[in-house]
Amino acid sequence: MRIVVADDSVLLREGLVRLLIEDGHQVVDAVGDGPALLDAVLAHRPDVSIVDVRMPPTHTDEGLRAAIAARSRLPGAPVLMLSQYVEASYAGELLADGSGAVGYLLKDRVARIEEFLDALYRVAHGATVLDPQVIAQLLAGQRRDNVLGTLTLRERQILALMAEGHSNAAIVRRVVVSFSAVEKHIGNIFAKLGLPPDDAQHRRVLAVLTYLRG
Predict the structure, then answer these.
(1) Distance from C-alpha of 185 to C-alpha of 203, rounded to nearest angstrom
(2) H-helix or E-strand containing 26?
(3) How far, in Å, CA of 47 to CA of 10, rounded?
(4) Cα distance from N-terminal residue to C-terminal residue, the chain
(5) How would you write the pLDDT of the chain (214 residues) with one tens digit per residue?
(6) Chain centroid to CA 72
(7) DSSP 30
(8) DSSP state string for 12-67
(9) CA 50/CA 121 separation, integer angstroms
């Protein structure tokens, strides 16, 4: 894949570049701030960008803002965000356009190389991938009186796995039920969340967005 890396930490940025090259990918640009990220994405149109949420000058959410700006210019441009802390609202803002191809991982996940590269691949191919710790925080903070409260425990489990970016086949392996049962649960999730028939991937993104807002 052709990849842009954006992180103001030279050590992490160069580490990512080396990891990606060793895995057979081409890093078309590596930058350290938001404006440079936007320029790189527009110039190179990479298969996916890896972006630190916090970059200069304020180290708040410049990376996120630049990624959103890039996706407004190139709708659906795949972006994998990296963050030191869990901020579920960041993922929600990226998902808000409904086009998917978004990932949000804690930086610690990079050390789990196979998991990180798998997440990167899935984002590049249109999936939505959220860090399991983000999912855990969402589950802990959800109110019982919102729309998600209508889901059964199994449906909530499957929606959480969808939010982590797993395909139906991968969900089958994790919850140990039949493929048809997973499809039925997902259909129930869509119905309970009020998501009408549409492109399956688009509905998955909307379901995850509802999950984030819950």
Answers:
(1) 14
(2) strand 26-31
(3) 22
(4) 34
(5) 999 999 999 989 999 999 999 999 999 999 999 999 999 999 999 999 999 998 887 788 899 999 999 999 998 899 999 988 777 677 777 777 777 788 989 888 888 899 899 999 999 998 888 888 777 766 565 555 567 778 888 988 898 888 888 888 889 998 888 999 999 998 898 888 888 776 666 677 778 777 766 5
(6) 17
(7) E
(8) HHHHHHHHHHHTT-EEEEEESSHHHHHHHHHHH--SEEEEES--TTTTSSHHHHHH
(9) 11
Which tokens sit at 129? 């991938």
Contact 81, 64 (CB under 8 A): yes
Is 0.90 topped by the overall pTM?
Answer: no
CA distances from 88 to 20, 71, 142 (A): 26, 19, 12
Residue 182 contacts residue 154 (beta carbons within 8 Å): no
CB 62 within 8 A of CB 33: yes
The Cα 140–Cα 164 span in angstroms is 16
Collapse the DSSP code of 179 into the 3-class scheme (helix H, G, I; strand E, B; otherwise coil) and give the result. helix
Contact status, residue 82 vs residue 7, Cβ threshold 8 Å: yes
Give the CA-trace dihedral at 125, 86, 53, 95, to 10 degrees: 40
Contact assessment for residue 188 and residue 182, using Cβ atoms and an 8 Å cutoff: no
Spatial contact of 123 and 71, defined as CB atoms under 8 Å apart: no
